[in-house]
């Protein structure tokens, strides 16, 4: 590795400019990181009003991401796994759910909600999924060429997660809007047109962004509390009813735990699967031979296609862990308190694990991608649900509208956390 290449990486990953670069240049930087004989360290971006640390190690290789994921007693999700800086207390109240907890507390809370994600429950959902997918394609056919993200990919995940939580129809647009804002923090579309990657973050800009996210957290929490009150009077078979009646070691969940859990689920349910579906349409458009293969025998190829889409799209770019003690992993000495970022996008293109990693190959087998997280206690709770949603939506879509294709480049979300597509023109 030349000094110039190293310098280029050093200047990159911790800056907003890096995340505004075209996808190919970012992927090239991660390829160089994987070549290093040690994980690169990046200083943290200093943000007004947020307590930032010294920096983080970038885990770019598959082996490192897998080992850190399966060693939660050393690579802890506390105090925070969903942002590089520790969440300020006023935000942790809304966004500090089980994703930011270690066992045993994490395991107990996860057990309560995992009942809503068992294969039996998913099987029971199948008819509803199918009905929703049919309606979405009816509307698409009536409308003609359209924005695939808002008119197709966003609709099914929103419907499913809101049904699961018992969220009434009339507040669903608000839920969609607020979850977009929470994970779109920093993107000009959600920040009043301000382009932080180009102009830098002023104190005013940071305050504006934090207040918007705080307000979104407050509104979703308020909705969760309202639903919880209703379910206490009138229990149903939705997840909010399960949360209020849950018993963890003789204790009920507190209002704060219910609220933050509600927010985690609506955000995770909404902001991931739609990106996988949208990236999938673009990949199938750009790779006509793979699309032909899928359409030739949909049932045989769809499971492999879904895994390959999640691998190449990697809708969640990274999560963080913090070292609980000094530890050596793959030759590198980490110190207690060090932060590491698990770059799933890079692990999923690791050439020592995936042959021809940039190729879209729906027959790839094995496909040990980490798009749903590495093996360990935090492995995505909604992975099987997401797989079902994509399968049902694509079956309906490609059966009734086999000519559907992306007709332009994706309008990408500016984010170091979510590999999002905000809009994608399509026609058929
Ligand atoms: C393609 C779609 C999806 C992707 C790529 C994805 C990705 C991920 C990843 C990478 C993690 C690991 C976090 C960590 O290790 O710290 C995770 C966790 C999680 N996901 Fe997903 N997810 C998807 C869909 C969903 C859906 C549909 C739901 C729920 C409706 C969901 C709910 C969760 C929850 C609750 C966790 C936290 C699990 C825990 O901390 O034990 N996800 N997801």
TrEMBL record:
GO terms for molecular function: cholest-4-en-3-one 26-monooxygenase activity; heme binding; iron ion binding; steroid hydroxylase activity. It comes from the Bacteria. InterPro entries: Cyt_P450, Cyt_P450_B, Cyt_P450_sf. CDD domains: CYP142-like (cd11033). The keyword Heme applies. One of its GO terms (biological process) is cholesterol catabolic process. Coiled coil: none annotated. Keywords: Heme, Iron, Metal-binding, Monooxygenase, Oxidoreductase. Belongs to the cytochrome P450 family. This is Cytochrome P450. It comes from Actinomadura montaniterrae.
């Amino acid at each position: 590795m030349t000094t110039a290449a190293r310098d280029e990486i050093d200047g990159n990953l911790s800056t907003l400019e890096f995340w505004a670069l075209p996808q190919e240049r970012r992927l090239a930087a991660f390829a160089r990181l994987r070549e290093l004989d040690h994980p690169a360290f990046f200083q943290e971006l200093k943000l007004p009003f947020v307590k930032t640390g010294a920096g983080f190690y970038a885990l770019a290789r598959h082996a490192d991401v897998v080992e850190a994921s399966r060693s939660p007693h050393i690579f802890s999700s506390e105090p925070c796994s969903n942002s590089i800086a520790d969440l300020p207390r006023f935000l942790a109240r809304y966004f500090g759910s089980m994703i930011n907890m270690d066992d045993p507390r994490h395991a107990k809370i996860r057990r309560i909600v995992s009942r809503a994600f068992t294969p039996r429950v998913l099987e029971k959902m199948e008819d509803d999924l199918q009905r929703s997918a049919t309606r979405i394609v009816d509307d698409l056919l009536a409308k003609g060429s359209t924005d695939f993200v808002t008119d197709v990919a966003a609709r099914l995940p929103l419907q499913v997660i809101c049904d699961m939580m018992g969220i009434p129809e009339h507040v669903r647009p608000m839920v969609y809007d607020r979850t977009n804002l929470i994970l779109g923090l920093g993107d000009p579309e959600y920040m009043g047109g301000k382009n932080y990657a180009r102009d830098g973050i002023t104190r005013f800009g940071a305050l504006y962004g934090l207040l918007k996210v705080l307000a979104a957290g407050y509104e979703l929490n308020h909705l969760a509390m309202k639903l919880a009150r209703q379910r206490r009077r009138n229990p149903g078979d939705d997840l909010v009813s399960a949360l209020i009646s849950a018993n963890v070691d003789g204790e009920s969940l507190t209002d704060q735990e219910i609220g933050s859990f509600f927010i985690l689920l609506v955000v995770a349910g909404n902001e991931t699967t739609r990106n996988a579906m949208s990236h999938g349409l673009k990949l199938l458009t750009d790779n006509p031979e793979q699309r032909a293969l899928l359409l030739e025998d949909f049932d045989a190829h769809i499971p492999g296609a879904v895994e390959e889409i999640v691998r190449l799209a990697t809708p969640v770019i990274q999560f963080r862990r913090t070292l609980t003690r000094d530890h050596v992993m793959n030759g590198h000495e980490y110190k207690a308190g060090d932060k590491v970022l698990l770059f799933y996008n890079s692990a999923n293109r690791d050439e020592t694990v995936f042959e021809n990693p940039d190729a879209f190959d729906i027959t790839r087998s094995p496909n040990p991608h980490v798009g749903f997280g590495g093996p360990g206690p935090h492995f995505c709770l909604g992975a099987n649900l997401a797989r079902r949603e994509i399968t049902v939506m694509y079956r309906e879509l490609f059966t009734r509208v086999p000519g559907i294709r992306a007709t332009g480049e994706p309008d990408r979300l500016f984010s170091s956390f979510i590999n999002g597509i905000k809009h994608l023109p399509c026609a058929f």
